[in-house]
Write a structure and sequence with these properties.
single chain, 311 residues, mainly alpha, hpI Integrase, Chain A, two-stranded antiparallel sheet, 14 helices, 5 strands
């Protein structure tokens, strides 16, 4: 099975042009399934996995194993989708005659509403970076761009100087599936980025030896700032002040979408800006605004304030 996984990896990278993040997730899921088969003995003979012996029982047992480890329905569904894609590839290459994973229903997902910051808390977060110096200006630029566009951390880390068009107040983003989209940026974001770019150039010139990083956002040594580095910066600011529990760096993306919807933006526009392939993914934000509207209604409407026996 190991050699087939390697072939599948080359297929994803070469023919499907999948992103490194997507390939990494696929491989993680497949190696986890491979380890389960070896540990449990499903579809094995003499310590070797026989592809043609992988049946519904083996896959269902794998899902039960994940369930016992308290894995969410969404994560289990992703792993089942990975197996289905892998078996579909094996059928194409002649290793198998049927895709057994395709016959198994996806585990039920529990819809969780995304956590987000209020507008006041969001503005408080944006004011936390120092107003001077390379680090403060860079962090302010990251926060302003992240909240100002709602892009993913991986998309922000992948931005280069050529993707930034300050004169037109826009950026070019490479999203999931390597799909490009052009996003507008506000005047506050433009101002923060202009200030950061001055410090960025000074930092590059003073680095030893001088570098020419490809990324828009760089670290203190003048190298490219990674996804992990950006997440660490954002987490640091979220822990620096008293923000609500359950808020993570990804919550800034949720905050952008929620605030846009509350201000009157239509779902289609938000879908385009977030880079969602399906409108149903964007619709989860309507639940947040409906909850807010219900709370406001109960507090403001004269009839809503009355108890049943008072009407």
């Amino acid at each position: 099975m190991e050699s087939q996984i390697l072939e599948f990896q080359k297929y994803l990278q070469g023919e499907k042009n999948a992103s490194p993040h997507t390939v990494s997730n696929y491989l993680l899921d497949l190696h986890q399934f491979e380890a389960f088969l070896k540990d449990s003995g499903h579809a094995c003979e003499g310590g070797k996995i026989l592809l043609e012996r992988i049946d519904r029982l083996a896959i269902r047992s794998f899902l039960a194993h994940l369930y016992d480890r308290a894995m969410s329905g969404a994560s289990m569904s992703r792993k089942l989708s990975t197996l289905s894609a892998f078996f579909r590839f094996l059928c194409r290459e002649g290793y198998l005659t049927g895709n057994v994973a395709k016959t198994i229903p996806l585990p039920r997902k529990v819809q969780k509403l995304p956590a987000f910051l209020s507008v006041d808390d969001m503005f408080r977060l944006l004011d936390l970076p120092a107003s001077e110096g390379f680090t403060g200006c860079r962090d302010r630029g990251i926060l302003e761009l992240f909240y100002g566009t709602g892009i993913r951390i991986s998309e922000l880390a992948g931005l280069g100087l050529d993707d930034l068009h300050l004169a037109d107040r826009s950026i070019k983003v490479l999203g999931k599936g390597r799909k490009e989209r052009i996003l507008p940026i506000g005047h506050k974001t433009v101002a923060a980025l202009r200030e950061y770019l001055t410090h960025r150039e000074e930092r590059i010139r003073s680095s030893k030896p001088p570098t020419r990083p490809a990324s828009l956002f760089i670290n203190y040594r003048g190298g490219n700032l990674s996804v992990r580095g950006i997440r660490k910066i954002l987490t640091g600011y979220l822990r620096k002040d008293r923000f609500p529990g359950g808020i993570s760096p990804h919550s800034l993306r949720h905050s952008f979408a929620t605030h846009m919807l509350e201000a009157g933006a239509d779902l289609r526009s938000i879908q385009e800006m977030l880079g969602h392939s399906s409108l149903s993914t964007t619709q989860k934000y309507t639940h947040l605004t409906i909850d807010r509207l219900t709370e406001t209604y109960d507090q403001a409407h004269p009839r809503a304030r009355l108890k049943p026996d008072q009407s």
